[in-house]
Amino acid sequence: MVIDPRFIYLAVALSALGAFGYVRDTLRGVTSPNRVTWSLWAVEGVLGFAVEIQQHVGLASLMTLMLGLAPFAVVVASFKNPNGVWALGAFDITCGAIALVGLSFWAFVDEPTVALVAFVAADQVASWPTVRKSWQAPTSESAGVFLLGSINCAITILTLHAITTAGALFPGCVFVTDLLMSVLILTRVGPRLRAGAHPR
Q1: Cβ distance 121 to 106 under 8 Å?
Q2: Residue 118 and residue 104: Cα distance in Å, rounded?
Q3: Which of 52, 68, 92, 192 is least enclosed, having the fewest CB within 10 Å?
């Protein structure tokens, strides 16, 4: 099913709403963003937008741009409330380094499809610290931005007249990751399972 491409404006509006809520929660100290994930997401979203413009993706590329601008706003907010920032560990740093290697590979590969796959792989690795945090400490996260993000990406994919790697791979992977984090945060399944495994 293909919907009117102008629905992308709705997706962009929902993305902005989700970002506003997450930034607000960050400033209040309710949410503790992982700067590794959000910084890389900011860079990748803008780079992904540039790639999609070159690939003539069309209006759907606006959603990818928002996937860069929203994380940038979160990173800025995290510096306004340093007490609310998630402490980084070896896992976070390792994921960040791997993601940067993937981005470097993307920058130098002269084959668009291979480069895009490397780019998306880097984006997914960048998300691992926040996926892990959503499992371990869901109360340190806000589900709204991820839930709206999954809806945004679904809308973006539905506006595509042809499902191509260039147009669908990035929003498709983000859709799956955002949906996973939404479920982990809302259900708090990680702490529940750990509590069940270690009863008092």
Answers
A1: no
A2: 9
A3: 192
